[in-house]
Design a protein that fits this description.
- The structure is a homodimer.
- By secondary structure, chain A is of the alpha/beta class.
- Chain A has a domain of 205 residues: P-loop containing nucleotide triphosphate hydrolases (Rossmann fold).
- Chain A contains 12 helices and 7 strands.
- Chain A has a 7-stranded parallel β-sheet, sandwiched between helices.
- In chain A, helix 2 runs antiparallel to helix 5 and helix 4 crosses helix 9.
- Chain A is globular.
């Protein structure tokens, strides 16, 4: 049986092998993805927010609820904020050990090996494999803060931004960007002081954005309070009522994904034959012998 | 007189107009940059680190010292963490008002209008204009935390990472990536409790990286303690002793810049004629009628 067929049958070891191909950018990954076939069946949910907001605990609590419905849950844990270390932070992964041994849960950390574009592509592809193996929903949880997370959540059908009271100035500084990216805002650790103030602040911030204001939910992932409401809200987005916005999002996602993949392939081909010319041009620019603009013009010469 | 000539003569209003062209991605910006001529004269120093570390105060203190040497200082304040709001956070800019009215200081905030690649390109170009107008050094200060900052600091000749004791878990989480990116590590607010422990932690972390460990300096920007040592260390990097590593960095920077500019230009041309095909392919993928891999193959058809 082919690896693709094994993955479609839900073979966990085959899935793990396929994910490694994708993560390493192995040439065999492209053929595997073509073999695995069309996807976009599973609800892909991005979970992001600053460290300490309780994302992992929330993911664990949501997973338990979906398992109660006998749904298989895939989790991709992504760390875009450490592009140099070559290994995703596994810190809170241990909490998910409550689900270890459960065949209906598959958890994988994706390291950020290369540029942001490369990681986005790997997440798309990894989510396709989890999808093909029958996991639905597929959660993409990010570790850290910054633009990377916001971009990566764009691969998701639905982006959940998790904040907690008292996380301080980082949250304040990030708020504008995160609120813009959110389909659902969650104030976790809602039993802590400052939760109501944070909800009020988010409500004000949400009113400023161009898109309709997202729902704001309060949860306490450690006790499970509010988590079922969140699960229901997420599931409802796949149903008829919200299906339209989900379809629009998937179309947008496919558009960005195809464009980026074509751009990468074209750049790869183009530079394969021009590495020397690029190196010479870079030397001339660094030495001040030519301007960047003139060098770019030369490097584009003869390109259709 | 052309805008380029006015900028080369140090005309501040012309410079501001040029920077607006660059920031808006105006088609006239490319011609302006070609007219302005070769650059890479000024020492471009990236200053990054988590919010609250005192970057702005440090930039202000360094600027005062360079002004004492009668050097003109350009400052680009960049906020990559709010890609959606279309306006850079101006929060601490007010501190720089001590330098307002000083013709030897030029401060500009750059908003992140589009993708990260677009902002990097705008920073390169904006630094070229400040350089052409006679500012040296040109400081690129980032606001916020995350991978964006690390990438943006790669446009710099020298990257200074500023940390402060007690900034908590964010600093801990980011440390690995930031330490890797640093040419110089600064522990600011060194008069605070925990400064020695932070220096020790950074020293351990720095030993783990592939490149030689960076120098670690302690400063208290509010009193000026240690700032002159930092200034001297930065200036020494341009001199003979460290000139070699700076040349290598500039070559690397020119390489990345040219490649990205050519890729952007080629993608722009390619999609101008294929927007409809891309839209149809995205619809087919979103509907599950084809795989992303097959759609990419079709979109690449006929490309040399």
């Amino acid at each position: 049986m082919t690896l693709a067929a094994e993955i479609r049958q839900g073979d966990r070891r085959a899935l793990a092998r396929g994910l490694t191909l994708v993560e390493n950018g192995d040439p065999a990954a492209a053929a595997l993805l073509a073999d695995v076939g069309t996807a976009s069946r599973a609800h892909r949910i991005g979970i992001t927010g600053p460290p300490g907001a309780g994302k992992s605990t929330l993911v664990s609590a949501l997973t338990a609820l979906w398992r109660g419905d006998d749904r298989s849950v895939g989790v991709l844990a992504v760390d875009p904020s450490s592009p140099f270390t070559g290994g995703a932070l596994l810190g809170d992964r241990v909490r998910m050990l409550t689900h270890s041994g459960d065949e209906g849960v598959f958890i994988r950390s994706l390291a950020s090996r290369g540029a942001l574009g490369g990681l986005s592509a790997a997440i798309y592809d990894a989510a396709d494999l989890l999808d093909a193996a029958g996991f639905d929903p597929v959660l993409v949880e990010t570790v850290g803060v910054g633009q990377g997370e916001v971009e990566i959540c764009r691969v998701a059908d639905t982006t959940v931004v998790v904040l907690a009271p008292g996380a301080g100035d980082v949250v304040q500084g990030m708020k504008a960007g995160l609120v813009e990216a959110a389909d659902v805002l969650v104030v976790n650790q809602a039993d802590r002081e400052g939760a109501d103030a944070l909800v009020a602040a988010l409500r004000s911030a949400a009113e400023l954005r161009d898109a309709p204001a997202p729902p704001i939910l309060e949860t306490t992932a450690t006790t499970g309070a509010g988590v079922d409401e969140l699960r229901q809200l997420l599931d409802a987005r796949v149903g008829d009522a919200e299906g339209e916005s989900l379809r629009a999002r998937r179309l947008e996602r496919a558009h960005a994904r195809l464009r980026a993949a074509v751009d990468r392939a074209r750049a790869h081909r183009y530079w394969a034959a021009r590495e020397d010319a690029l190196a010479r041009a870079a030397e001339a620019v660094a030495a001040g012998d030519t301007t960047p603009a003139a060098a770019v013009r030369d490097l584009l010469e003869g390109d259709a």
